[in-house]
Amino acid sequence: MEFEDRVLVAMKKTLLAVVKDTTTKPELKHPLSIDTQGLITQCLGLIASIQHNKVKDNKDYKKMKPFYSGENISQSVDINNISNIIDK
């Protein structure tokens, strides 16, 4: 993983931890100001955009599809079409 990717992941995890740690019940006043909440939302949006564009630029579309940790992500290939796949 590239340095920039590690930084983005660390920033995203940190911001999400701040959100999780400061989340209150709906009837209570949130400890973070509305402006700070907006800044966190903007940062998370920017991180997601950067990650999306990096995957898109690398044409690695499989990483764009969300998957569950227990999901089987193996692919099956029709043996009759194997020559078409190899020729690509």
A few lines on this structure:
The protein has 88 residues and is mainly α. The protein is 57% helix and 0% strand.
| Count of discrete structural domains | 1
Question: What are the low-pLDDT stretches, counting only 5+ consecutive residues below 50?
Answer: none
Gyration radius, in Å? 20 Å
- Largest β-sheet summary: none
| Structural shape | elongated
- Span between N and C termini? 28 Å
Q: How is the quaternary structure best described?
A: single chain
**Strand content of the residues, in percent?**
under 5%
**Beta-strand segment tally:** 0
How much helical structure, as a percent, in the residues? 55-70%
Please tell me the overall pLDDT.
83
Query: In terms of structural class, how would the helical and strand content be classed?
Result: mainly alpha
Topology order in helix (H) and strand (E) letters: HHH
Structure annotation, total helices: 3
What does this molecule look like?
The protein is mainly alpha-helical and 88 residues long. The chain has one domain (3-67). It is built from three helices and no strands. The protein has helices at residues 3-22, 34-57, 82-87. Helix 1 packs antiparallel against helix 2. The two termini are 28 Å apart.
